[in-house]
Amino acid sequence: MSATEPTAALRVLLVEDDPGDVFLVQELLGEVDPTIRVTAAGSLAEVIDGGLVADTDCVLLDLNLPGVSGLDGLRAILRLDPHAAVCVLTGLDEHLGVPAVAAGAQDYLVKGKVDGQVLIRSVRYAVERRRAETSLLRLREQELAAAESARLERGLLPSPLLAGSPVRARSFYRAGRARSIIGGDFFDAVLGPTGTVHAIVGDVCGHGPDEAALGALLRVSWRALVLAGVDEPELLPKLQQVLVTERHEDHLFTTVSTVAICPSAAGPGGELTVRLAGHPPPISLVGEPRPVAPSVGLPLGIAANASWEPVRVPLQQRWALLLYTDGLIEGRVQEPGQRLWEEGLLELLAQEGGADLDSLPARLVERAQALNGGPLADDVAILLLSADAAPGDAAPALGAPAVDAS
Fold first, then answer.
1. Which residue among 75, 101, 136 closes a domain?
2. Could you give the CA distance from residue 197 to residue 238 in angstroms, rounded to a whole number?
3. CB-CB contact of 16 with 22 (8 Å)
4. Kind and range of the H or E element at 273?
5. pLDDT, position 97
6. How far apart are CA 119 and CA 99, in angstroms?
7. Residues 209 and 351 in one domain
8. Does 328 map to a domain?
9. What does the pLDDT read at residue 340?
């Protein structure tokens, strides 16, 4: 596009204390493009006090303002807006032009050596170069955010370590809407040194990268504790110690649900131990879906002397257990002001009684989103555990025996 072709009206801020130079610049610009809006300011103080940089596309800055030395004026403008497009005007100190560009200006012009065409071209190029630089910067920031999200995801959403156990795991994660980085939801499942399978699902309060990093730390710490052979009753107290030591804000807490599956205990499928720290209970999927719910203890990080009482129930030969974070049940449903909650999730599970276990977590999230009328606001993490079965095996029909809590 040539300088004489129609374009969107540009807003130029001219910072110049000489009225003659102000008149000359306005005339030069107006002759080439009468639509240009030129705002004149006689000092940096006038620019700063009036907030003029925020309402401009390009700043034409005289480097010889009274009381301003060298490139201090340019630095002051860029402190106001680091992304401002600035062209500097130099007089006898033409040697300052190149250092000005190095300091962040888009171009430099020598007074008395430019006409209207050169001036308008320099302004437009400065604006376009700054826009291109800003776009590249935003793209780089998005790439860095995506890379950070991928690193955090590897920490929060691991591959369960269940080789050699009779337990099979399926996991699912979906970030809440309008977030480029995952939150503090995490899960894991590990075969311990005594043959007991341990699993956890947790949620650090908050949704930023700091909470995600804390969730990853808690997940890794929990796995290390299990693999080190720490007794099951000591896992939550020790995990709380890690949280209290490592959290970046004193008010942060974490809700978790833990299960331990001991295949050697009495019963054909072993024994299940469940502990809750302010978290929704796991749901038994075989037979009529129902929660396996001990008394709910305080979330981790609330009270140093908190305790988490277990519930222990025998498992039948075939069983399946759903652990999840509350993002799954906090979506809205069709009734105004109502949410899905645990009761609604149990209804969805009853309707999905014949669904393949591999596809069940994703189907639950899709159905919850359909009821919500769009993506869920919070992150959703799901861990589905079952007795070892081939990938294509379907869940038993409703009414088959599952967790025997009698």
1. 136
2. 18
3. yes
4. strand 271-277
5. 82
6. 20
7. yes
8. yes
9. 94
The H or E element that residue 330 is part of is none
CB atoms within 10 A of CB 15: 28
User: Are 330 and 377 contacting, i.e. CB atoms less than 8 angstroms apart?
Assistant: yes
- Distance of alpha carbon 195 from alpha carbon 262, whole angstroms: 7
Average pLDDT, the chain: 85
**Which of the residues in the chain have pLDDT under 70?**
1-8, 92-94, 144-157, 177-183, 265-267, 388-406
Q: Supply the pTM of this predicted model.
A: 0.63
Full DSSP string of 181-219: S--SEEEEEEE-TTS-EEEEEEEESS-SHHHHHHHHHHH
pLDDT of residue 397: 31
Whether 321 contacts 284, CB under 8 Å: yes
- Alpha carbon distance 204, 214 (integer Å): 7
Residue 8 CB contacts under 8 Å (≥ 6 apart), including other chains: none
Distance CA 60, CA 258 (A): 63
Residue holding tokens 């979330």? Answer: 299
- Tokens representing 190 are 């590990």
Whole-number pLDDT of residue 306: 95
* CATH number, domain containing residue 238: 3.60.40.10
User: What pLDDT shows up at residue 342?
Assistant: 94
Element (H, E) at 372: helix 360-372
| Residue 244, pLDDT score | 96
pLDDT score of 82: 87
Phi first, then psi: give them for residue 315, nearest 5 degrees.
-105, 145
Where residue 162 falls (left for φ over 0; alpha for ψ -120 to 50; beta otherwise) is alpha
In the prediction, which pLDDT does 154 show?
Answer: 58
Identify the domain containing residue 118 by its residue range.
11-136
Side chain identity, residue 345: L
